[in-house]
């Protein structure tokens, strides 16, 4: 197979041609800034307004003023956590989150801890899930924020956010949801989740890189994040990335029209890939929840084999995948997500994550199922850890 098989969609996705066409005029011809009052500035303002509506529709936000544009999912998470805590510091200084959050959430919560907030990090079960009961037990009179991801980026486990949302709403606690891995892929409905804020990122659903959004429920206060100009209702200063925002809006519109059918198609490919790996490679184990799972996520460990070696061998066959271990990005730490679900240190180094998407098809799955077993076999023959 000569095509590149990109199975790292949880990392990033390609920019769609329609999205590129929608945003290009705002890179060049309509270069005006949305703060100016002459016509090309007004054009930019209108384009941002349309993108706000498109994004609100994807999330079922009631009002488009509940959508704030940011530079990425990480910024959205940072703003929600810091902004919600600072706005409530007189009420209390206790935060609850989970052990498997993305660093954009975990590190921001730890930053607040260094600033004097108390932090409870809830442990997850062997599938990577927490229960609403755990949250209920952890809530204290001074709890001001609960932050739980909608689905995990590494193992694809979906969290019971609706139940947690109901719990937090009942107690008047700000509930933040990191929906970076779910928006545009499965239904993300802020009314049903009953969250106070929710983070998304355009490049995860075929929009441009460097643009994200934060939903903040009307009435839920998040303190000003970037100081300077009056953009984004005077809460997040900085000249708008007009082209990026237009691209996010267009990607949201396309995702909205496709995700229901696409998630069914992609889940069928995922299930075939999982079943194929389980039947052809012995001593393999699926990580994450087999039922409450993102439609595009496949994550395995193979006894006695390092994740990085698998990635390099797959790359030689034209397959892009990733490993939970951070080694490939320059750190030797094992995956904290895999450690949290109870895997041993050496096992947490050995995962393979294959994430499917829009371009994935049956031929790609067949190709991976043909190429992966001999790679594992070969690596095991070289491995001192596998007998
Ligand atoms: N949250 C989750 C769950 C993610 O998977 C990611 C990126 O991988 C982020 C947040 C950060 O998003 P961004 O890359 O837009 O900063």
List keywords for this structure.
387 residues, alpha/beta, 3-stranded antiparallel beta sheet, binds pyridoxal-5'-phosphate
Overview of this protein structure:
- The protein has 387 residues and is of the alpha/beta class.
- The model has no long low-confidence stretch (mean pLDDT 94).
- The protein contains twelve helices and twelve strands.
- Strand 3, helix 4 and strand 4 form a beta-alpha-beta unit.
- The longest helix is centred in the last third of the chain and has 39 residues.
- It has a seven-stranded mixed beta sheet with strand order 2-8-7-6-5-3-4, sandwiched between helices.
- The site of pyridoxal-5'-phosphate has 13 residues, from helix 3.
Query: Which structural class is indicated by helix and strand composition?
Result: alpha/beta
Low-confidence stretches: none
Instruction: Give the mean pLDDT.
Output: 94
How does the overall form come out from the CA principal axes?
A: globular
Instruction: Count every helix, treating DSSP H or I runs of 4 or more residues as helices.
Output: 12
The SSE string, one letter per element, is EHHEHEHEHEHEHEEHHEEHEHEH
Sheet of most strands = 7 strands, mixed
Total number of beta strands: 12
Distance between the termini: 33 Å
| Cofactors and ligands | pyridoxal-5'-phosphate
Percentage beta strand: 5-15%
Radius of gyration from the CA trace? 21 Å
């Amino acid at each position: 197979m000569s095509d590149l098989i990109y199975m790292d969609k949880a990392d990033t996705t390609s920019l769609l041609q329609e999205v590129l066409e929608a945003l290009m005029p705002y890179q060049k011809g309509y270069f005006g800034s949305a703060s100016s009052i002459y016509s090309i500035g007004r054009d930019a303002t209108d384009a941002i307004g349309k993108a706000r509506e498109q994004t609100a529709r994807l999330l079922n936000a009631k009002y488009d003023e509940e959508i704030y544009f940011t530079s990425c999912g990480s910024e959205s998470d940072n703003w929600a956590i810091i902004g919600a805590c600072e706005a409530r510091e007189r009420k209390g200084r206790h935060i609850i989150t989970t052990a498997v959050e993305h660093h954009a959430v975990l590190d921001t919560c730890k930053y607040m801890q260094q600033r004097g907030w108390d932090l409870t990090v809830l442990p997850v079960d062997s599938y990577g899930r927490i229960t609403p009961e755990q949250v209920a037990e952890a809530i204290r009179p001074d709890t001001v924020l609960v932050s739980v991801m909608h689905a995990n980026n590494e193992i694809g486990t979906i969290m019971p956010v609706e139940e947690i949302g109901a719990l937090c709403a009942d107690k008047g606690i700000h509930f933040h949801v990191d929906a970076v891995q779910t928006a545009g892929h499965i239904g993300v409905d802020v009314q049903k989740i009953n969250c106070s804020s929710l983070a998304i990122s355009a490049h995860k659903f075929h929009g441009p890189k460097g643009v994200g959004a934060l939903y903040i429920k009307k009435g839920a206060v998040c303190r000003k994040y970037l100081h300077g100009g009056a953009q984004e209702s005077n809460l997040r200063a900085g000249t708008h990335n007009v082209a990026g925002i237009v691209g996010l809006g267009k990607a949201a519109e396309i995702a909205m029209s496709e995700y229901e059918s696409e998630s069914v198609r992609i889940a069928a490919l995922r299930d075939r890939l999982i079943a194929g790996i389980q039947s052809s490679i012995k001593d393999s184990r699926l990580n994450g929840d087999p039922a409450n799972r993102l439609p595009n996520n496949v994550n395995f460990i193979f006894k006695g084999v390092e994740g990085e070696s698998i990635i390099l061998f797959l790359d030689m066959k034209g397959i892009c995948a990733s490993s939970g271990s951070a080694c490939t990005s320059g750190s030797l730490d094992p995956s904290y997500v895999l450690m949290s679900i109870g895997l041993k240190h050496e096992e947490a180094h050995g995962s393979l994550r294959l994430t499917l998407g829009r371009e994935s098809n049956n031929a790609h799955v067949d190709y991976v199922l043909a190429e992966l077993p001999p790679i594992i076999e070969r690596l095991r023959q070289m491995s001192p850890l596998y007998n």
